[in-house]
Design goal:
Length: 68
């Protein structure tokens, strides 16, 4: 799955993305409210301006991720 597919699935109502592997993905300004990203590998991904309210990043790999 790539970033665009994840956002499409999210728009269709899916919220469970546990264990997904998406390094260096650009989620700036994306709406991911309530997404389950537990155990996801998101190294180097960008989340600037994204709506992450209620997201679960438990045990996610977020090295060098940008949340500013």
């Amino acid at each position: 799955m790539n970033r665009d597919e994840l956002l499409l699935y999210y728009a269709r109502g899916r919220r469970d993305f546990r264990g997904i592997i998406l390094p260096n993905a650009d989620f700036c300004e994306a709406n991911l409210a309530g997404a389950m990203l537990e155990g996801a590998h998101l190294t180097g991904s960008r989340f600037c301006g994204a709506d992450l309210s209620g997201c679960c990043f438990s045990k996610a790999v977020l090295r060098q991720a940008n949340f500013t």
